[in-house]
Amino acid sequence: MTNDALQIDHHKLDDTRTVRRYFQKFSTITTHLTRVAATMEVERRLSKADVAILGRYLAGLTFTFRALSNKYLFSGRIERAGQLTFDRHESGFPVFQELLTMASDAQQAERHLRNMPSVEALKDDMIRQIVGDLSIPEKLQYALSQRMYYEELMKGELFWARNDPEALWQGNKSDRRREFLVHWAVYDSQQNLPTIYLMEVEDTGRVALPKDQRRWPEVQSHLMAQSFAGLKLVTIAQGFDQDFSDLHPKRLRRFHLGPMYSHAFTRQSGPIRQILEQARAPEGQDWALVWTSEELLSKDVRREKSGFFGSVEREVFALDPFAAEGSDSGATKTERSIILPQRPYQALEEQRPPGFADVRKFVVSPQGRVLSYR
Q1: Which domain of life does this protein belong to (predicted)?
Q2: How far is CA 214 from the centre of its chain?
């Protein structure tokens, strides 16, 4: 991407009120995403384990936005406060560099907090300035916001640029065939979107995968190196299958959270622009978020010669020949959903633009209930 393109796509928020509205919008959206995941569990499209994993990453995303909102709380009022950069065209989310900087700040959070006045001391100084000088203590308020930022980073459990794989034991099919659910997540650097991966693996190694000091670090490194939205699921799964002869990927899923569209913040194009324009939704309900899930399944196993006398299992993956992009989609199934409040949903139903008929709609009521529609 050229520098000119980046200038068009990336936008800085330089006003305190705008920054607060932006993060309040995401606070609302991430809360609704948890309810959407619960609705999918009721519909048997996600398992209880799936929802627990997704819920953890969604909570981490909430903590990440909370930390960034503290960091940029005084943008436009304090010169050194900095400005949040977000991708207003492709994603609506903060740019990848914001999360990299946040990870770097987390490494030094303890040192920063050690050298900062306590929350109580800052509040006492504020009261003295308000009462004694009859002035707004903006610099002290900024110092408090930065302390809150570093405290949030110290708590951990945020959604980072890289969220390394973890393996959850699911049971044993036999003495030498264990089942694991491996999950990991990244903040995709090209799309500026959170992306979550779940892979069901059968392990025929001598030592259980998470306890294997040789294989587990290699598996983690391999999966993180392949975690790009531009790679097809079948490419990721086949590469894993080839590199680890005693690990058998039976099911691989990828969840893309976003883009987020908002008439107030993003420069959307196509039908979604007209939908949000027509909806004329009040503040806080002017948004729509896309949720895309891809799934790849193993349909068979073949034996492949290994060495002079041995053989190994290789997975045969099922590709969907009827998908919109044909078998080139690299997945068995792709499902797109859109989450939006009632007013934008009503506008969507009135316009009925092409391409939305097969998109599942999750509609959020003013009371926070989530209803699922086709």
Answers
A1: Bacteria
A2: 29
Residue 2: predicted pLDDT: 47
Whether 339 and 36 have beta carbons less than 8 Å apart is answered as yes
Contact (CB, 8 A) for 286 and 262: yes
Buried b (16+ CB within 10 A) or exposed e, 109-125: beebeeebeeeeebeeb
Residue bearing tokens 């000119």 = 4
| Cα 348 → chain centroid | 25
Query: C-alpha angle with apex 257: 58 to 90, nearest 5 degrees?
Result: 135
The pLDDT of residue 7 is 52
CB 62 within 8 Å of CB 54: no
Cβ-contact 131, 70 below 8 angstroms: no
Q: Cα–Cα distance between 19 and 258 in angstroms, integer?
A: 19
Compute the Cα dihedral for 212, 218, 221, 225 and give only its sign. negative
Give the three-state DSSP class for 95. coil
Q: Is the dihedral of CA 323, 324, 327, 332 positive or negative?
A: negative
Instruction: Specify whether the CB–CB gap between 248 and 315 falls below 8 A.
Output: yes
* 71: nearest Cα among 165, 181, 174, 145: 145
Side chain identity at residue 287, one-letter code? W
Cβ burial, residue 82 (10 Å; 0-12/13-18/19+): middle
Domain boundaries, the chain: 3-155, 162-373
Residues in the chain with pLDDT values less than 50 = 1-6, 325-326
Are 54 and 46 a contacting pair, CB within 8 Å? yes
How many Cβ atoms are within 10 Å of 332's Cβ, its own excluded? 21
179-197 b/e (C-beta count within 10 Å ≥ 16 → b): bbbbbbbbbbeebbbbbbb
CA distance 75 to 141: 12
Q: What is the DSSP letter of 207?
A: S
